[in-house]
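Hi, here's the filled form for the chain we discussed.

Project: internal
Contact: R.S.
Residues: 491
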Amino acid sequence: MPMTVVKINANVDRTFERMNHAIENMTLRESFMAPRATVADRLQAGKAIRSQVPRASHGKFKKAGDRPDPVAILEAQNATRVQKLVPVRFARMLASPFAFLRGSAAVMAADLSTTPVTGMGVGACGDMHVSNFGVFASAERNLIFAINDFDEVHPGPWEWDLKRLAASAAVAVRFMGGDRVEAEEAAQAIVRSYRKRMRRYADMGYLQIWYDKIDERAVLETLSPRARRGAERLMDKARAKGHVSVLEKMTEQVGGEHRIIEEIPLIVRETHTAAGTPTNEAIDTMLQAYVQSLSIDRRVLLSRYRIVDAARKVVGVGSVGTGCWVILLQGIDSDDPLFLQVKQAQTSVLAPYVDHTLSFENQGRRVVVGQRLAQGSPDIFLGWGEGDGKDFYVRQLADMKGSVKFNESDPSSIDGFVEYCTLCGWALALAHAKSGDAAMIAGYCGNSDALDDALGKFAMAYARQTDEDYDTLDKARRTGRIKVATQEVVK
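And the returned structure, exactly as it came back:
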């Protein structure tokens, strides 16, 4: 049942409505005295949706006859970005079809809007791909594996996240030199893991789900000995990565104080913002607004630091050209640094395709609410604000963070990658179980491999579409339609 706008069936699922009320004014649509459906009833309700939306229907992807030009979609996004950085964005996307997929969430959102949906809503990531996971430190200083980027988070269908994640796995395997069979197996591994974990969450209490985390022990127990060694190395590096190590890497001593080292055009200390506001004034205003989003205890902690330096920094692939600042603050002395990342938040790529009542006065708040809902134990300095005419959110730049890197033309790493895919499927299931109805989703997904097979087929079809779109962008480069930065500039 293709559709361009997701209509939520109130008789099937009221997840979106409950999220809207809980987020906006902390009221409930239903009384606390009202009965709630049992797990068995919700499992059966999810299963019943298969008669309207067969699981096999998710295996099809056919390019719409009126499909928008993918380059035009990217150009429309660029209209609100720093224009001198747009060539850097295109250069990063042209590194490979996998890089293109990472940077073209808006293109795939348009495509996904034409695919079948069951009407069950979650806090959808919106930019789900295999490079969007990693480890980070919880407030208790334990390493957690989870989704690590929520710029596009928005209420949406659970299928859209799962389909994008499965497609990204197929594209990544081809990037690493794998064949078609291996690519489809990786995609199926994600769906299988998601489906099985969701079934477990269906039987868990709500608090159990809320407190559940994929910690270091759980990660290592899931992996084979060979993959476990790689995970241990990644976690060791993450534990060693913190504000002091970033201070040593990103700064130099100037006049007795640390200053962020410039790497033009990727890291630049600018005197004025794009709107013409003096940088120091703009950053102070932004932080003053941001502080209001923090709880009192976090405000007290942050107030003990002072700003030492700030610079604009280019990050990611799809985010290139949006406003992003790194701020160095100092506590007791120079050995007590705090790096904050202030990142511009724009409207989610999912928003045009979802019929919903939820709206945020600040897009940074949307990101923060989505991350808190999905992660359970996010960054203690996570917050939002508005400054210089832009919405933004704030998080720590480095706090025991680490992520997996994929190497081009390295088939030897594919076995370990498939195991990594099972972790990604698990992490996505946990995020969706926190924000959606785990039992209904599990009831729909079922216990057979029907959904695995269907989304494996979808992933391969969309991988082919990604190759075509990558070629279209490369043709735009060759014909001069777009400007692309040189590799020396992009690095």
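Let me know if anything looks off before we file it.
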